[in-house]
Structure formats: structure tokens, C-alpha cells
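Collaborator request, handled under Task 6.
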Amino acid sequence: MSYEAEKIATALKAAREKKGLSQRALSARAGVPQSHISKIETGGVNLTVASLAAIANALDLEITLVPRKAVPAVKSITRSVGDVPRASQDARKEVARIAKQIDHIRNLSIDNSAIAKLQHQFKEMQQFQNLMKDTDALRRIREALKSVEGAGGSKAIQEAAERMNSLRNAIAHNQTDIDRLNLPRAAYRLDGDDNA
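C-alpha cells returned to the collaborator:
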């Protein structure tokens, strides 16, 4: 196998592993036999353009011919795109639980405008899901939503929507002290008051 073909095979294997796909799962997506994928990755067979196109498509990759002078710029861009953060499994679970809680709230007889605002804030927050690391903030949002059924009602919905908005803003602006954002700000401060 030539050096160029080896680089392509290594890149395809890395992309497959990064997506968390087994060779069998990639085979099902790409329509290329699993044994052929294995041979491609180990250099046991030459990669055909048809196989390369099918595998690249299944891995959300594009095959592009780039002028040699532009290769460093393209590599720089692909490196930065390749380092896309992923939310922790716990954070993804909390977001899924919040979604279920919102679906449950929609069936209650509560002010529709408050629920619409809540759903809007949830969609806005979900746009930053891959950057979420603070599962405690997500749990507090879910707990606020749980209190909707009790005496909380529309006020609890509004509180949860505000917490979602605060979390989204904190992530968007790369603020790390999310707990501070969830606390109400003091209207004034006394001398020696270190808690405000």
C-alpha cells in the first residue's frame, strides 16, 4: 500500500472510531462489506474510489481535491473542526430527562404562553448541549420543572426557563461560574458582606 493510501486508511479508521462505530456498523451505513473495511484499515486491499466515497459519506466526510498550496490551511481548519467537544453522558441524560419533563408539563392545564416560552428556552439551551459539563445546573432545572405539578405552576415554569437561559448564556459566553448565575443578585451590598 502506498504512503498516501495508508494515510487515507488511517484517517478513515480514526474517523470511524471517533464516531464510536464498529466496522460492522460502518458496513451497514456505507453498504461496504465489513471484511472489506477491515482489509482497507489494515492495508490488505487497495481502496477503490467507490468504496472510499461510500465510507466517507457514512462518516460525514467529503472527498475533495485541494491545490497543494492550500493543504496546510485545510489541515488547520479540519483540525479545529475535529476537536468539537461532546457533552458528558450524564449531561446528555439530564437533557433527555428535562425533555421528558417538558413533554409531561405540556399535558397539564397550564398557561400555554409560559409553556411555549419554556420550550423556546429549552431549544435555545439544546443548541449548546455539546458544551454542557455542569450536570448540577441541569438537575436544578429539572427539579424546578418537577415543582410545576405542585403549587409551583407558571412560576416554576418561569424559573426553569430563566435557569435554562442563564445556563445557555453562561455556556455561550464561556463563563465557568454557572452557580453564581443562578442566584439572584443583591440589590445592595453592606460593608464586609462577602456573600454578595
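The cover message to the collaborator said: "The chain is about 65% helix and 0% strand. The radius of gyration is 24 Å. Please let us know whether this matches your experimental observations."
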